[in-house]
Specification:
This protein is an alpha/beta fold and 323 residues long. The chain has a single domain, classed as Luciferase-like domain (TIM Barrel, Alpha-Beta Barrel). 45% of the residues lie in helices and 16% in strands. It contains 13 helices and eleven strands. The chain has helices at 15-28, 52-62, 81-94, 108-111, 121-139, 175-184, 195-206, 223-234, 241-244, 250-256, 262-266, 275-288, 303-322, and strands at 3-8, 32-35, 68-69, 99-103, 144-147, 152-156, 168-171, 187-190, 211-219, 271-272, 292-297. Strands 1, 2, 3, 4, 7, 8, 9, 10 and 11 form a nine-stranded parallel β-sheet that branches. Helix 6 (175-184) links the parallel strand 7 (168-171) and strand 8 (187-190). The longest helix is centred in the last third of the chain and has 20 residues, at 303-322. It is globular, with a radius of gyration of 19 Å.
Length: 323
């Protein structure tokens, strides 16, 4: 059975709205939720980028059932891994065990703000591996001292530890990240329905572990409105992660997507209110082997209508197709 999740996208709504939306997602019957962790939006049209960890704390208190997860946090530059461990442990306690820590090697868009430069991908993966080791050591309790290639930790300890540490997921986009996730992660995260990613994850030790995908959608009773919204706010999505990880500013994404048309976007993102179109967009993820798929409704002002439609129409259609 495929579980269907809801995405709190910090780039397209303010913090109070994000909490209201995830409460609505719980009421609508979504199986889980995820949240992006950004410092900048991808495009200026999105207009937001609040602090994901404050939103998570509020969401943990405002909800009672729906699982929470970062999708994803980068623990290598903007945040020190020892601080990520403390944040994750706290959210796990606040949510009473409903939290999973999704991690990735990050994007220049968000990490450049601390002025440390943007390392090449091989170095970022080295940093991620070391960071995960530090986080897991702190989850185990006791004092941690670490002097590694990229990080120093001096007698750190988490004083508020949950009984069960948050499971750690790692985002993948190619063979190298799949190898890392296979031997480091409790679950794998991806934004493309590529069976090859999951096969590589399995080869490196991931067999039997959960796999979580993500899919942008644009619901609106008027399909033209849905297409225009998707083009305005999400035309960057088709650039691929090798590009998306490198560009440093929303203006860079504006320039990189200046020739992307509405038809281009509509061909890759389901738009409108035909549930079958949404079912067919989810199908490649299910067929690739993803057991959990988080939907991203595009547009911060379109969430309430989407949640109502999901409860009445979309979720029943998806469960009939993949349940």
């Amino acid at each position: 059975m495929v579980q269907i999740g809801y995405t709190m996208m910090t780039e397209q709504a303010g913090p109070r709205d994000l909490v209201e939306h995830v409460v609505g997602a719980e009421e609508a019957g979504f199986d889980f939720s995820v949240i992006s962790d950004h410092y900048f939006p991808w495009l200026r049209a999105q207009g937001h980028s609040s602090y994901a960890w404050s939103v998570l704390g509020a969401a943990a208190q405002a909800t009672s059932r729906i699982p929470l997860m970062t999708y994803v946090t980068c623990p290598i530059l903007r945040y020190h891994p020892a601080v990520v461990a403390q944040k994750a442990a706290t959210v796990q306690l606040l949510s009473e065990g409903r939290f999973r820590l999704g991690l990735g090697a990050g994007e220049n868009l968000n990490e450049h703000v601390v002025g440390g430069g943007w390392p090449p991908v091989d170095v970022r993966h080295e940093m991620l591996e070391e960071a995960v080791g530090i986080i897991r050591a702190l989850f185990e309790g006791g004092h941690v001292t670490h002097h590694g290639q990229h990080y120093d930790v001096e007698s750190a300890r988490l004083w508020d530890l949950p009984e069960q540490a948050p499971p750690i997921g790692i985002a993948v986009s190619g063979e190298q990240s799949c190898e890392l996730a296979g031997h480091l992660a409790d679950l794998v995260i991806a934004t493309e329905p590529k069976a090859g990613l999951l096969e590589a994850f399995d080869r490196h030790g991931g067999s039997g572990k959960p796999r979580v995908g993500q899919l942008p959608v644009s619901y609106d009773p008027d399909r033209d409105t849905a297409v225009k919204r998707a083009h305005s706010q999400f035309r960057w999505f088709g650039l691929g992660w090798k590009v998306n990880a490198e560009l440093p500013h929303p203006d860079s994404f504006e320039a990189a997507t200046q020739f992307v048309t509405e038809d281009d976007v509509a061909s890759s993102i389901p738009c409108g209110d035909d549930p079958e179109a949404f079912v067919e967009a989810v199908r490649p993820y299910a067929e690739a082997g993803f057991g959990e798929i988080a939907l991203v409704q595009i547009g911060g002002d379109a969430q309430r209508e989407f949640l109502d439609w999901s409860a009445k129409t979309l979720l029943p259609a998806l469960r009939e197709a993949f349940g």
